[in-house]
């Protein structure tokens, strides 16, 4: 697939590669996964209805989160290949992050519903038909393993989270199968709500992880894979750079990191000399997984706050008035 994010501006032999680190995801595989996951959801909902098993219903709840996750990832992947335009200069890659946030919050709601229902059933355990549990959960287990194994080598974070969902689902389905076997031999119907609570906890952990990651990206936080101090130290160590300040490192979407900073160069340096410094800086940052780099070049007399992190606007205005 063509990389829509690589724009080549030839400025005197100086090539810019923006977003080289963007990994495209397999749209076809995601489409297939979406259809098959919907099929599992229907089978488990019907099975849960006939067997009166909350564990199977909560497994279906878990699968529903997958339908969300895969549907959203599929949508996000198709959005992220749309080229940037004048109204969305960073492109549409972050639509996947918004989608993931909605997905994470929905999971938390589903978890609460399962816990409330499990609490009710622990007080009044009902009759559960284990054969239906067994059949429906087996379908879920097989399809999820088939999908997860087919996509386990993909790098895209959206796909990775979908694969984690599928493996979690497979584990939950396996749990339901075991519960079905226990109930058919012992008639301990209490096993069913207890397992539901375990599945709810599984969903909650996944949800919290998604919400935390998406919030960090939406808050323009420094990506987890980037060591801010190390980046600043490496930039300062480059020949020709006297100092750097006003450094920002953020992710446009997962796997697409960006950096902007002001670099103080020797005042006697020509523009041509400064190009070599820029090339060195871009090369150095590529090793940190930062593909989108913007550097403002200044000499020592340019007014600025003497710190790496940007000062608050009020401070900057104060500074101007003096």
TrEMBL record:
InterPro entries: Cation_efflux, Cation_efflux_CTD, Cation_efflux_CTD_sf, Cation_efflux_TM, Cation_efflux_TMD_sf, CDF/SLC30A. This is Cation diffusion facilitator family transporter. Residues 1-13 have a biased composition (Basic and acidic residues). Pfam families: Cation_efflux (PF01545), ZT_dimer (PF16916). The keyword Magnesium does not apply. It is a multi-pass membrane protein. It is found in: Membrane. Residues 225-298 form the Cation efflux protein cytoplasmic domain. Gene3D superfamilies: Cation efflux protein transmembrane domain, Cation efflux protein, cytoplasmic domain. Belongs to the cation diffusion facilitator (CDF) transporter (TC 2.A.4) family. SLC30A subfamily. It comes from Alicyclobacillus fastidiosus. The chain crosses the membrane at residues 33-54, 60-77, 97-116, 128-149, 170-188, 194-211. Keywords: Ion transport, Membrane, Transmembrane, Transmembrane helix, Transport. Signal peptide: none annotated. Residues 33-219 form the Cation efflux protein transmembrane domain. Residues 1-22 are annotated as: Disordered. The lineage of its organism: Bacteria, Bacillati, Bacillota, Bacilli, Bacillales.
């Amino acid at each position: 697939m063509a990389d829509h994010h690589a724009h080549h501006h030839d400025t005197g032999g100086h090539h810019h590669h923006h977003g080289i680190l963007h990994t495209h995801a397999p749209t076809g595989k995601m489409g297939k996964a979406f259809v098959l996951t919907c099929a599992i959801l229907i089978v488990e909902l019907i099975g849960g209805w006939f067997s009166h098993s909350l564990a199977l219903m909560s497994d279906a709840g878990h699968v529903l989160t997958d339908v969300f996750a895969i549907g959203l990832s599929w949508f996000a992947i198709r959005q992220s290949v749309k080229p940037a335009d004048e109204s969305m200069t960073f492109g549409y890659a972050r639509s996947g992050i918004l989608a993931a946030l909605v997905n994470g919050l929905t999971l938390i709601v589903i978890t609460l519903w399962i816990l409330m229902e499990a609490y009710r059933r622990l007080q009044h355990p009902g009759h559960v038909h284990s054969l239906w549990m067994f059949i429906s959960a087996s379908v879920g287990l097989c399809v999820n393993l088939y999908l997860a194994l087919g996509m386990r080598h993909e790098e895209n974070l959206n796909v990775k989270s979908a694969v984690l969902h599928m493996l979690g689902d497979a584990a939950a389905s396996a749990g339901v199968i075991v519960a079905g076997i226990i109930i058919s031999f012992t008639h301990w119907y209490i096993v069913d709500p207890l397992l539901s609570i375990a599945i709810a906890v599984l969903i909650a952990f996944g949800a919290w992880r998604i919400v935390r990651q998406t919030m960090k990206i939406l808050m323009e936080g420094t990506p987890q894979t980037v060591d801010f101090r190390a980046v600043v130290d490496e930039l300062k160590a480059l020949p020709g750079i006297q100092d750097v300040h006003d450094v920002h490192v953020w992710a446009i979407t997962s796997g697409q990191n960006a950096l902007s900073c002001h670099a103080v160069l020797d005042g006697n340096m020509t523009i041509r000399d400064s190009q070599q410094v820029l090339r060195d800086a871009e090369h150095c940052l590529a090793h940190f997984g930062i593909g989108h780099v913007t550097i403002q070049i200044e000499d020592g007399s340019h007014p600025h706050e003497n710190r790496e992190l940007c000062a608050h606007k009020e401070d900057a205005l104060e500074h101007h008035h003096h």
